[in-house]
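Researcher: Next sequence.
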Amino acid sequence: MGGVKGKRMPREVRERQMMDAAVRAFGRLGYQAASMDEIAELAGVSKPLVYLYLNSKEELFTACIRREAQALLAAVVGGVDAAEPAEEQLWAGLLAFFTHTAEHPDGWAVLSRQARTHGEPFAGEAGRMRDEIVAYVGTLIGAAAQETHRATDRDPELAERDVAGLAQALVGAAESLACWANETPGMTAWEAAATLMNFAWAGLGNLMRSERWSPRGLSPIPDLS
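Model: Next structure:
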């Protein structure tokens, strides 16, 4: 498996090779079950070399989380064209998210399941990535509200707390849907993104038109900000 043990190559190439093997092992076996022996075997190197480069299993797992988190965030941000209408920006961000998680299922398993179920410092690393994505999605929702305001001359009435809550809800739904999509044969990234866009955009559109849902017979939920 992997390359020939002892073969000379640049440090960054060797380290990436070991990280790729580690993500595969952690994503498929879990943090506890994946051993440094298996990771070394997958990478085609000796176990002492893995320790030489990455010090410990904990540090290796932390490095994997950081790398996969940075790659996912870069994919989402990179998939959005700021010159497009807000609706198209949100769609592009969702499509980029589901495309990346579908193309990197082991990396997504590391972020969505393994990192969050093994305590600190792993959960904190994954949480920071999530906070960045939530903040970015919040900017897209806020931009959509402003775009609606300019187009209709109606106040979208989206307070800062509304935007923050909607961003949390949308990212949470995307995370759950990505896990389900990766385990559902035949489900494509485009279908997953379209499912969430259809679910979310109708509700967002109503909010931006100041049409808030409320339980029958009661007033709309008041703005407590």
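Model: The first helix runs from residue 11 to 29. The CA atoms of residues 80 and 88 lie 8 Å apart.
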